[in-house]
């Protein structure tokens, strides 16, 4: 019989959870404080721990650490959820993070899953050599970080928010999370929220009943029903209307939704992975993303590096794309040394998608077996005698991206001296330092962020 440990200082909540645990076939131990929970862990390691973080007698994280050490699944149930707490808990091996009041049907599903497996599902792991992970290719250090994050979060049911420029492979990350989870045998449904007409997106998400509007001659199942038991990938989440964001938030909190044309709720068990090519904080400030939805989605935020930040992965990916074209076409084309060097120097504003298309064009236009450098895009960086004191911007580049490139270029020009950089940019040292911290947190290379006596004044 699987064993359940409940940590909560509310007697009524403990009893409700204990009754539900017994219904699902568990033996149950209860603790009202951290000390009692640690004693129970020593007496009998549980298969599952349901824990509140805010309990008497110490930090609930201590219980998470000890539970992970004895290979127990841990689910946090708290009325004081924050992104920092969620991320810290996940790093300690927590498998899920639920906000009170908890949907009991959703919790019952979780209890039955753990009872059925009597142990943790195997974690996703990168292939030997760390060059591949799912459909992703790359051996740079920034990609190794991405692989480790996926391996850590995949076995849980946590919502994930993937942030990255267009073409960086956000859907591949979502697929890898799905394949590394216990849901791998269930549907993976990908939705581009920006590609659906605003007046149709609610119908597509939640479905409709027959007769709910003119032309609705049959019942239609939406994406949530189609993804039941599996993973729903919501790309370009900031393109969703505010009204629909409210409904999405309710589904995430309760595990229930209503089809268009009915007031009957339908339960669903769906893990959501969302993605955006905007900085989420800026999307909230610009009115593109509800703050409450942001915090619910970003239980585990991930930042995908731009291709220009991935070093030799550029050449590795280009060669992989060429190998595929050679295999399909029965050819043995190769890159010239000059072409490879130009690959390294190019900014790749369209990221992996642009690189793949560039290789395809060069392959098609090649007159011999060697792909000439002239067929490879020129760099947007200062190169081949260009002015290193200039920053070239693309038409349509976001203001946030333009700001970042200008700030980092000015910092480099000033030799990393932040006071001088702030003065040149016309901002306060504190504003500059806050920006640099945000860029570093997002995975960008910020030289000597915490170094130097000058920082004491910022």
UniProtKB/TrEMBL annotation:
<keyword id="KW-0804">Transcription</keyword>
<dbReference type="InterPro" id="IPR025662">
    <property type="entry name" value="Sigma_54_int_dom_ATP-bd_1"/>
</dbReference>
<dbReference type="GO" id="GO:0043565">
    <property type="term" value="F:sequence-specific DNA binding"/>
</dbReference>
<dbReference type="InterPro" id="IPR002078">
    <property type="entry name" value="Sigma_54_int"/>
</dbReference>
<feature type="domain" description="Response regulatory">
    <location>
        <begin position="3"/>
        <end position="115"/>
    </location>
</feature>
<feature type="domain" description="Sigma-54 factor interaction">
    <location>
        <begin position="136"/>
        <end position="364"/>
    </location>
</feature>
<dbReference type="GO" id="GO:0000160">
    <property type="term" value="P:phosphorelay signal transduction system"/>
</dbReference>
<keyword id="KW-0597">Phosphoprotein</keyword>
<dbReference type="InterPro" id="IPR003593">
    <property type="entry name" value="AAA+_ATPase"/>
</dbReference>
<dbReference type="GO" id="GO:0005524">
    <property type="term" value="F:ATP binding"/>
</dbReference>
<dbReference type="InterPro" id="IPR009057">
    <property type="entry name" value="Homeodomain-like_sf"/>
</dbReference>
<dbReference type="InterPro" id="IPR025943">
    <property type="entry name" value="Sigma_54_int_dom_ATP-bd_2"/>
</dbReference>
<keyword id="KW-0067">ATP-binding</keyword>
<dbReference type="InterPro" id="IPR058031">
    <property type="entry name" value="AAA_lid_NorR"/>
</dbReference>
<dbReference type="InterPro" id="IPR027417">
    <property type="entry name" value="P-loop_NTPase"/>
</dbReference>
<keyword id="KW-0547">Nucleotide-binding</keyword>
<dbReference type="Pfam" id="PF25601">
    <property type="entry name" value="AAA_lid_14"/>
</dbReference>
<dbReference type="Pfam" id="PF02954">
    <property type="entry name" value="HTH_8"/>
</dbReference>
<protein>
    <submittedName>
        <fullName>Sigma-54 dependent transcriptional regulator</fullName>
    </submittedName>
</protein>
<dbReference type="GO" id="GO:0006355">
    <property type="term" value="P:regulation of DNA-templated transcription"/>
</dbReference>
<dbReference type="InterPro" id="IPR001789">
    <property type="entry name" value="Sig_transdc_resp-reg_receiver"/>
</dbReference>
<dbReference type="Pfam" id="PF00158">
    <property type="entry name" value="Sigma54_activat"/>
</dbReference>
<dbReference type="Pfam" id="PF00072">
    <property type="entry name" value="Response_reg"/>
</dbReference>
<keyword id="KW-0805">Transcription regulation</keyword>
<keyword id="KW-0238">DNA-binding</keyword>
<dbReference type="InterPro" id="IPR011006">
    <property type="entry name" value="CheY-like_superfamily"/>
</dbReference>
<feature type="modified residue" description="4-aspartylphosphate">
    <location>
        <position position="52"/>
    </location>
</feature>
<dbReference type="InterPro" id="IPR002197">
    <property type="entry name" value="HTH_Fis"/>
</dbReference>
<dbReference type="InterPro" id="IPR025944">
    <property type="entry name" value="Sigma_54_int_dom_CS"/>
</dbReference>
